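note to self — DONT lose this again. spent like an hour looking for the file last time. sequence + predicted structure for the chain T wanted, 188 res
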Amino acid sequence: ALEAGLLGAHPSKDKSAERVAELQLAAARKLRQLLSSHRDLLIAEVLERNWVPSLLGWLDQPQTAPDVQVEALWALTNLAAGTSEHTQVLLKHGAVPTLVALLRSPHEEVLEQAMWVLGNLAGEGAAARDAVLQHGALKPLIQCLERGNCSLSMLRIGSWALSNLCDGQPRPTATWDLPELLPVLGKL
C-alpha cells in the first residue's frame, strides 16, 4: 500500500482527485510512522526506492491537502535527522526551495514541520546551512516567528531552526539584516 500510494498518487483517468489525496495521505502517514520507529533500516529503503522526489512533489502541488503536507514533511524531517548522506539526498533533490516556500503556508502544522526540516538541514554543517540561507529561508522564518498567534511549539521549533542558521564554523556567509533579526530574538 505504501509503494502504491507513493508511486500511484497522481491523477489519472482511473483515479479521482479525492482518491489520489487519500492515497497520498495514507502513504505519507505510513512512511512517517515507519521512519519514526525504524529510522535506520527504512531510510536506506526510502533512498533506494527514490521516494524523496514523490514526497517533495506533493509539497510543491498547490492542491495537496495540508494533512498530506504535514505527513510528508514529517517523513522528510526523519530523513534529515539521519546521516550527512541522507541530508545530501534532500539537498540534491532540491528540497530547500520547496521548504522555504512552505514557510508562507497559512497552516501552522505545515509551518512547524517545514521549519523542522530546514533546521535539521541547517544543523548538518556549514555547507548545508549556507544552502538553506542562500535559498532565502531567514526572512520567511523571521516572519513566521513574528506572527501574533504563534504557538509555543512553533516558537520553540523556529528558534531552534534560527539557531542552526546562525551556528557553525565558518560563520554564515549570508548578509544578516540585524535590525530585522533583533526584535525577533528579543521576543524569543
